[in-house]
Amino acid sequence: DAKTTQPNSMESNEEEPVHLPCNHSTISGTDYIHWYRQLPSQGPEYVIHGLTSNVNNRMASLAIAEDRKSSTLILHRATLRDAAVYYCILRDVGGGATNKLIFGTGTLLAVQP
Amino acid sequence: KAGVTQTPRYLIKTRGQQVTLSCSPISGHRSVSWYQQTPGQGLQFLFEYFSETQRNKGNFPGRFSGRQFSNSRSEMNVSTLELGDSALYLCASSLTQGSNTEAFFGQGTRLTVV
Questions:
Q1: What does the pLDDT look like over A18-74, one tens digit per residue?
Q2: Contact A100, B47 (CB under 8 A)
Q3: Pairing state of beta strands B5-7 and A107-112?
Q4: How far is it, in rounded angstroms, from Cα A8 to Cα B28?
Q5: Which of B31, B90, B99 sits opposite A93 (nearest CB)?
Q6: Is the four-CA dihedral A37, A102, B77, B22 of positive or negative sign?
Q7: SS3 B42
Q8: Could you say which residues of chain B have pLDDT below 70?
Q9: pLDDT above 70 covers what percent of chain A?
């Protein structure tokens, strides 16, 4: 499974945009890029995923570099409720039909009021 | 639509005992995966079931087992509990299988082994 690298922690101010980076230099052409987050005392929560094009949903945007070796999760206006650990995960179509997720250590996002 | 339900939420067991945890996936979801979360190892994949068949297994000893029923509900069992099995056990359900599929997690079962 291809590996991802994320900063251990980041800090943001409330109502400001947050850009969470993820490096995946060994990504294969069939790997989807998924983001999950885990709020304190809760199970992980799906945020967004994409393959090649940038993606938007109600929670966030995912910007994927042209060479796909990195991606950025964008929270447009951080709220206190966005304080969580954010995980960037690669999922390989070529690995067969599986829902196995390999979590790294993620980025702990702190949001200051 | 109800989310993923895990029972019980909290459990205290004695070393050497066995434990069974339950997971009810979102209605219509056929895939259930289990994860163990500890402060030292983070989130680790245990196993995955789809249509009552185990499709994938993580690197855990044989004391950890699971099964899935025809209604997609799943149980995991840990026998001969050790202190190191103390963890948050998380269940995730997905509509189907594949890397383009999102997973929905339950709140977890907090197991403490004393």
A1: 999 999 998 888 889 999 999 998 999 999 999 999 999 999 999 999 999 999 999
A2: no
A3: unpaired
A4: 37
A5: B99
A6: positive
A7: strand
A8: 1
A9: 94
Please calculate the CA angle B46-A28-A7 and round it to the nearest 5 degrees: 65
Residues linked to residue B35 through DSSP beta bridges, in sequence order: B45, B90
C-alpha closest to that of A90 among A75, A101, A76, A74? A101
Taking the C-alpha atoms of residue B79 and residue B100, their distance in angstroms, rounded to an integer, is: 34
Phi, psi of A109 (to 5 degrees): -95, 120
In this predicted structure, what is the pLDDT of residue A3? Answer: 86
Q: What is the pLDDT of residue A97?
A: 65
- Asked if A90 contacts A31 with a C-beta cutoff of 8 angstroms, the reply is yes
The pLDDT value given to residue B100? 78
Instruction: List the single best residue of A100, A103, A108 to mutate versus B (max B Cβ within 10 A).
Output: A100
User: φ and ψ at A53, to 5 degrees?
Assistant: -90, 155
Find chain B residues with C-beta within 8 A of A97's C-beta.
50, 55, 97-98
Strand partners, B93: B32, B104
